[in-house]
Design a protein that fits this description.
It is found in: Cell membrane. The chain is an all-alpha fold. About 75% of the residues lie in helices and about 0% in strands. Helix 1 packs antiparallel against helix 2 and helix 2 packs antiparallel against helix 3.
Length: about 170
């Protein structure tokens, strides 16, 4: 067995285990940790596919920013620690669901004939970050700028809404 196959199997196993643990754990912080393991293993799979830019973005945005925002949301909200009352069949049903999904995906991927689609093997893995940057700032500059303006408007709107909530709470004390 090659080192690449072992790395793929380890990352795939971590991703699957993280997803299953996220569904079966009862404490929210443990679920978040399982989600972070899933995100990191998927980033590793992207890097193995020579998509370094997507892998780094996966780590920065999902494993970093989104997970931290969710942790802050969990910490700032009031939630009760209730026990699971769904019964002992839940774990078995989750296992059957994961097994069925894995089987369907295995047979679906094995039936695809990539050579018959007439796709020429392109050198996409060579300098893919440079290619993404050149396309982003030449061909897709207008959607990039519109997205940045939309995000700026959303940020200003969120600040205005948060400020209105603070002003409303201050006036109720009078």
């Amino acid at each position: 067995m090659s080192g690449e196959l072992i790395a793929f199997m380890a990352l795939a196993l971590i991703a699957i285990m993280g997803g299953v643990l996220m569904l079966n754990l009862t404490k929210v912080m443990h679920m978040m940790l399982a989600l972070v393991f899933t995100f990191l293993s998927i980033a590793g799979l992207y890097i193995m596919l020579s998509a370094e830019f997507v892998g780094v973005v996966q780590v920065l945005i999902y494993s970093g920013a989104i997970a931290i925002i969710m942790v802050f949301g969990i910490m700032l909200t009031n939630h009760d620690d209730e026990t699971d009352t769904k019964g002992k069949w839940r774990g078995f049903l989750v296992f059957l669901g994961v097994l069925a999904f894995g089987g369907v995906m295995y047979f679906a991927v094995n039936r695809v004939d990539f050579a018959a689609n007439g796709v020429a093997e392109a050198a996409l893995h060579e300098q893919n970050t440079k290619q993404i940057g050149e396309l982003l700032y030449t061909k897709y500059i207008i959607p990039f700028e519109v997205t940045s303006v939309l995000l700026l408007v959303a940020l200003v709107g969120a600040i205005i809404l948060a400020k209105k909530d603070d002003e409303g709470e201050g006036r109720s004390d009078e």
